[in-house]
Structure formats: structure tokens, C-alpha cells
Amino acid sequence: MSGGHLERSEAEAIASWLIDGASGRKGVLGADVLYFARESHSLSLLDGEPEENSSGASGGIGLRVVGKDGRQGVACGNNFSKQSLSNILEWSFANLQASEPEENIVLFSGSVDTDESALELFDESAAGSITQEKRMNACLEMTEAARSQDVRVASVRSASWEDGVGESFYASSTGVCGWKRSTSVSCGTAVVLEDGDSLEMGAYGKGESHLADIDYLEYARLAVGKTAMVLGGKPIRTGKYTLLLPPEISALMADEIGDLFCASLIHKGRSLMKGKLGTRVAGSAVNLLDDARLPRRAGSSLFDGEGFPTGRTVLIGSGIASNYLYNLQYAAKDGIASTGSASRGLGSLPDVGTSNLVLLPGNASPESLYERVSNGFLVLELMGLHTINPVSGDFSLGAKGVLMNKGVAGEPVAGVTISGNLLDLLGKIAAVGSDLEFFGDTGAPTIVVEDVVVAGN
What we know:
The protein is α+β, with helices and mostly antiparallel strands and 457 residues long. The chain has helices at residues 8-23, 82-98, 124-128, 132-149, 216-230, 247-259, 263-267, 328-334, 366-371, 422-427, and strands spanning 28-46, 49-67, 72-77, 153-172, 177-195, 198-208, 239-245, 288-291, 312-317, 320-321, 342-343, 351-352, 357-359, 376-383, 394-405, 408-421, 429-432, 437-439, 442-444, 447-455.
């Protein structure tokens, strides 16, 4: 039986067989198993004509064996035949023997909540009522909405839709086990606008767990509107500007900042947040949380990759670095409890990762924030976020956007660079808007960052 969906009873039986086979070996402390399965459908149009149309199923299972001396071995596969499962068992044990011992490698043995109804991760309408006709009609409507939005739309490079149903299972030799089931729907539009010699490409899209939360026509309109704002953009005079970062841009920044609070990076000396707990790292308006219990959010789960209960952790409170994120190993190193932040794939050992990151909103409307800025640069695209140095915080990012003066949009801007240091940037956040939006597992509002050097002409 190759990769695909198993009945729950089958998956549980296979997990039990693997765990029993591993746990009975000499020198083994215990073992745990991860199983996942997903069915998905995707469709995309290029200028109204089919470009991609696919449906598929995938699945797999991974086994981790933990030795009494702190060694670990992991192996995985997407075939559920007896021979393949036997191979996974042997490979995981061989990998354990080839690994180096580590301290504080343990398995969780407490209780886990198994009623995930409050998380609202599964939507019956997304799982059963989306037909191929509905996907096609939505993509055609996105194409038409984009074309009718602006006469300068030269091409609708993509109008895309994807939906899927996923299921995962965790079990360990300590008796901890639990299921997670979720749905997902995502769609977006990419367009090319042309005006004389000026050409600009842009896109906008979102993913949600519930079909009712998707507004694909609005995404098409936003793709055109945001692209139109930067069409014909040119560099501006180098100087200090007040940056206006809309939710989709501030969410990207929140992603980069949240990762810096992972204890594994702290202990390896790969985060500028090392040694910063209890100190000011951002403006007082900044409150950043990691919360795995938010309803309808992609990063939500009752338990993490080690079966430990998830929760809510304040990373930055009123500008003060407050907590790190932990899995079992790094929590034991620091003598505290895990935050339920173990991140793990089928074929990887547990690490530390974020769940849902939320930059909490303030009370001011985005319009009021725009109106108070007289020398502003509304950033609509940032390029090179992955190049931010996590240790020093230094960055140099390409940017596009539009000049803003007391709420009025001015000249489009392109070909400029925003350089500096991440801690300095965080310290210059002067205001946070009320317009919280989620993009996948990250939520953020509009933020205002004062006195930032933008390099242009």
C-alpha cells in the first residue's frame, strides 16, 4: 500500500506495531510515530485558459527511536506495506546507533486534550462541496474581476485555486496519542499591468481553513490595485522616511522576528534575541504572541510534534522581550516547562518552531495613521527578507511602494533599498493599527516605523 489515506484504525495499528518493535530493543528508552495524509485539488488559469489542473493524495509515516543514552534515530516512508514498515524500523534503529548522544532527550508522558472542536480546523463545506465546476468558475471570475478593474491589465498571469483535507496522528511509547484533522482553501491572482513603457507584475492571495472566509474576488481586485500603485515607480531621493507597513508586509516582518525567539537558535548562538529577555527590544506599542489555540488558523493544534500540549506564549510584551519558545529538550536545558513548540517533519528530529504568530493590533484605524504621516513611504513589496542576519540583525531589503502625505498617495516608488538593523527598526515602531489580518499562520496590522533611511537617488 503506497502513500495515501489510511483508516484511523489502520494508522493506529501500524503506529503501535512500529512503537512496540522499537521499544523492545536493547538500550531503547522509547519511540514515537507521526503519520499524515492529505488529499488536494488545484486549478490555475493563464489569461482565462487552463494552465494546471491536478488532484492527488499523499501520505507517510515516520518513526523516531530514543535511546537511553540520548541517541536518536529517525526514518520515514510513504509505503505502508509490511516490508516497507520493517525497513523503517530497521533504518531508524541504524540511524540511532550512528548518531551522537545528546542531553535532555525525553518523551512526554502527560495527558493531552483530544477534543479539537474548539479549534474549528475542519470545515465540512470545504471538505465535501467544492466541485471542479466551482473551482473553474472561481478562477474565471477572478480573471474577469482583474481585467475589469483596470484597463492597463495586460495579462492575468494566474488565477489559482487549491483546496485540501489533511489528517495527522501522533503516538508514543508513553501512551500519548492524538489526531488532528483540518481543511484548507487558498486562492489568488497574479497580474501584469502595462502603461506605455512601464510594466509591473504583482499578486495577492490568501489561504483559510473555512470556505466561507475566502473572498477570491476581493483578492483579484487587491492584486490589481496594489500593482497599479507601484506601476511606473522610480527611485526617490535618499533620506529618512516614515514607513507605513500594511498588514501583509508587517506579517512578513513578524515571521522573521518570531523565529528569533526559538530556544534552539538561542542555544546555538544564532539569534540576536539571545540574552535579551527582560530588556526592551521594540517600541512600547509592540506585542507579539505565539498562540497555537486560535480558531481557524493554519498553525493551530492541541499538541506539538512531541505530543506536548500547546498554548499561548508572549514573546514581546509592550516592547519587552518576555519569553522564548521551547520543545522538551531545550526546556530541560533551561530548567523550565516546554511551551509546546516542538516542530517536526516525518523524517526529522524535533526542533523548535512557531505556531500562529500574532502582532497584536492597536486602537487606531489605518486611515488615521496614514493621515498623521507627512513624509511617508507606504511599502507594498519587500524583497530579500530571507537575507536578514539573525545574529546581528543587519539587513538590506529591496522595496516598492508609494509616497504618502497625510493620507494622500503620491508618486510610485521602485528601485530603493531599506537598510539597517532589525533591533533599531523594532525600536522605531511608533504606532500599531487596528486592522489585524491573517496571512496563513501569521496575523498583523498596519504598523508605523519612524525615521528609517531609504536609499534611492
